[in-house]
């Protein structure tokens, strides 16, 4: 029976690199996002995760997609970075960010956990901002901190099921999200002042960390920072 990666946000960036990593290891892949992943052999399920009602409506097809699974690795990767402050934050933006990063993972867990055999895993993608804050990113910072809570609750509630969990926290990774939210001047500032090694992380490096966590049941309930040793403020 095949092992399955079920991942959200595999249409680009860290998600797409993670899919490439697992395909190389012989895993089957189900991607959940609004746009398809263009890599061959991926089963794409079209879903807007900002609307949790849609997830329940797709439950049957999601379960059917992994009906012959041995191990399942569920990676909650989809994310949305909104620029807002504690004074300007809009209810819509906060709800959308939390729906994609917190409510959708919780609903997907409910669907997939009954399908998971011992040795399966649930990997959350957090951020350096899961444990610190920066200005102008209140919805994102709140959602990234909440992911850590969801991961820790996952660990406690799945005690005895031998499904392990971790939160992988990337630093500055060279994806469209980074390029859309930081101009080159800001990137250069961070690389000069904050990032040991003075380079961006390749998304494939984050994919390797995710795969390592999935293959390592000893890692359970852990926050794994993958940020080149970013210098603390
Ligand atoms: N890049 C970094 O420096 C960095 C640093 C720390 C943490 N992270 C985290 O790593 C994860 C991946 O980031 P990335 O840099 O690869 O971002 P990205 O290139 O912007 O990709 C984000 C992915 O999330 C999916 N997504 C967004 N909104 C969605 C929605 N409403 N429904 C379904 N899917 C949705 C997108 O798919 P569709 O558009 O096709 O729906 C896309 O595949 C995110 O959780 C991000 O917060 C990134």
Describe this structure in words.
The protein has a seven-stranded parallel β-sheet with strand order 3-2-1-4-5-6-7, with helices on both faces. By secondary structure, it is an alpha/beta fold. The chain has one domain (4-226): Rossmann fold (3-Layer(aba) Sandwich). The chain contains eight helices and seven strands; from the N terminus they run βαββααβαβαβαααβ. Strand 5, helix 5 (138-157) and strand 6 (164-170) form a beta-alpha-beta unit. The chain is 41% helix and 16% strand. It has helices spanning 13-24, 52-57, 59-65, 91-112, 138-157, 176-181, 184-193, 203-214; strands spanning 4-8, 28-33, 42-46, 72-76, 121-125, 164-170, 222-226. Helix 1 (13-24) crosses helix 8 (203-214) and helix 4 runs parallel beside helix 5. It binds NADP nicotinamide-adenine-dinucleotide phosphate (NAP). NADP nicotinamide-adenine-dinucleotide phosphate binds next to helix 1 and helix 6.
Explain briefly what this protein structure is.
The protein is of the alpha/beta class.
Number of domains: 1
Structural class: alpha/beta
Radius of gyration: 17 Å
Helix content: 40-55%
By CATH, the architecture is named 3-Layer(aba) Sandwich
CATH superfamily: NAD(P)-binding Rossmann-like Domain
Q: State the helix count.
A: 8
* Unreliable segments of 5+ consecutive residues: none
- CATH level 3 topology: Rossmann fold
Major sheet details: 7 strands, parallel
The coarse overall form would be globular
- Name of the CATH class: Alpha Beta
Q: Which ligands appear in the coordinates?
A: NADP nicotinamide-adenine-dinucleotide phosphate
Beta content comes to: 15-25%
Strand order of the largest sheet: 3-2-1-4-5-6-7
Cα(first) to Cα(last) distance is 48 Å
Q: What is the mean predicted local confidence, pLDDT?
A: 97
